[in-house]
Amino acid sequence: MSAVAYPLVAIGGLGAKAGAEIIQNMPRELRTVPPAQTTYVYANDGKTLLTMFYEEHRRYTPISQMSPHIQQAIVASEDSRFYEHNGVDAKGIARAFVANQQSGAVSQGASTLTMQYVRMALRDSAQSPVEVQAATEQTSGRKIREMRLATELEKQISKTEILERYLNSAYFGHRAYGIYAASEVFFSKLPKDLTIIEAATLAGLVKAPSEYDPASRDKGAATARRNYVIDRMTSIGYISPDAAAQAKEEPITLKLTTPPNDCASIAKAQNSWGFFCDYFKNWWGAQPAFGGNPLEREDKLRRGGYTIVTSLDPKVQEIAEDNVSGRESVDSRFAHGIVLVEPGTGNVKAMAVNRVYSLDQSENGSHSDPKKRARIKGNYPNTVNPLLGGGDMPGYQAGSTFKMFTMLAALDAGKPLSTAYNSPYRMRSIYPGDGGPSSCGGYWCPSNASAAMTGRHAMWSGFGQSVNTYFVQLEQEVGADKVVRMAERLGLRWRTEVDRNQASPEKAKGWGAFTLGVSDATPLEMANAYATVAGDGLYCEPMPVLSVLGPDGAQAKFTNAEGEQVDVAQPRCRQEVSKDVARAAADAARCPVADRPAAGSCGGWSTADSVRGTVGRPVAGKTGTTDSTRSAWFVGFTPELAAASFIADPDNPFNAVGDWQSNKPIDSVATTLREALKGQPTRDFVPPSSAIIR
Length: 694
What we know:
The structure is a single chain. With 694 residues, the protein is an alpha+beta fold. The protein has a domain at 58-249: Biosynthetic peptidoglycan transglycosylase-like (Penicillin binding protein transpeptidase fold), CATH 1.10.3810. It has 24 helices and 21 strands. A hairpin with a 5-residue loop joins β16 and β17 (565-567). It is elongated, with a radius of gyration of 33 Å. In the C-terminal section; belongs to the transpeptidase family. In the N-terminal section; belongs to the glycosyltransferase 51 family. Residues 50-233 form the Glycosyl transferase family domain.
């Protein structure tokens, strides 16, 4: 019976020493631990909601932004003497003690609003299951602890602040914690707009959210509880008897909202945003600003109450989505995707792929790898795999788009654009062969895609026509290890054991095939690397955010390598190659797209000659295909925007896409750049200096 019997004298007797210690620590326990709050994630306009992240859906709301009706309804239903007691209601305790002794059970609780808040605060600040149990268990010891803390709390803060905290902590059902979430979930409105009827309905829920759920089929219990609250409001004098009678005649009218939670619950109309959202989550999980490990960082995301404005541009995203899904069905085994990055900031503007972002793979097609087909389904049309980058997938071989790294390494080493070689159809390199068809006499002997490429080439025509034997010779002069390091400087990372081994200091000097794009890369990496060229050699880490505000409205910060406090959303840029080197590389990169370089000759033809006419403004880029066209790529850029598109089979990299599909990435990039930049002023590339042209 001790669990239900708690006479007032216990406050001054039982556990006095422990109570004194609790009171001494009270400000720390109840004043410094904020309740969990929902994180809101928006598109780059700061208004279009992508999704939310929460364990407990809650948004802290000042009492000044709450309807007076909800304040009155809570007081009336839970603690009518709230403004008269000092945290513990002596009359209520005595009344409850008698009632509980007579019934032999807990028929009345006598917990004031202040005591209830104390219990919620202790629960929310608990660091272990044991602490949670101590905060919520039905014992006289817990009740006495609440009484002591409630009494002390009322000496520290005002009744208004206690009521505000209570209304932001209480659970109303349907994963709605606090009055902001409850108003949104049940009535799709803000707390300041709640009517008497709505306020009474919500106030009635905190006693037993499931029992009085107004969203259930039978609203009888919810209506009876609401009417009880209205009667209590009348007896206290908050509303008149006539207003109460009229309110009780009205039915409970709900306007339910289910707030999204995590990437998989993004609205169907914006389903493609899920892939960007997933990239954002992976980025967040790698930021030390939000915790010491990925679990701590995810907890911050779900409980920290951040307001995040991402770099996602809904207009550009829609254009990108149309240009990949329109060229390759979501039901295709082949993934066709595109990523767009802003030069000079690294802001990721769009990520689209011909897939449905969904965890449900029950109706997916068969796996394209014969060894896996009997065991698992393919990842189409539904998947949440990070096909575009930002996760742990290695990516896809990017073919001749890697020649950009060789050209940059050569220019960075002092070789001019005019560097020329006689480039035969096939050549013997200085690199060791692997015994395959490209080996001859123990050496690696690469060949060109066509005999028409044979002849003398400088960087313009070598890049424009994608002459393998030209770039192998250029790589030999600058050193394959320098080319590998250049790719790393521009953001590429090695995710397979083979690539890590080949890129190691011991092996990189002999990795001759690197210039032909035999390593895996992601569209995000390639778009960002080419954005460095478009941005005059300024490398910026790819970024999914424009701002990250904490619940206090301050920008989230981290300590950089120099020990400075920096906004976590601030672009992280460094001058990786000189402006002149980047401008020279951009000049040569105008040749593949049939644009006109500032100097030099493109050789009369190019590998993507439709791009300049489609984009309709100065543009540069590079095509890339792998052996047997297992994947096809195009990376294009203007001074304002860089885009990388690919087509490949993520489930089975050996499943060739076919030559006939190699134009799809070219067309996707060209059309997306044109539409995304429509209406913007036309900018030209800055020509390189004569010193680097020579």
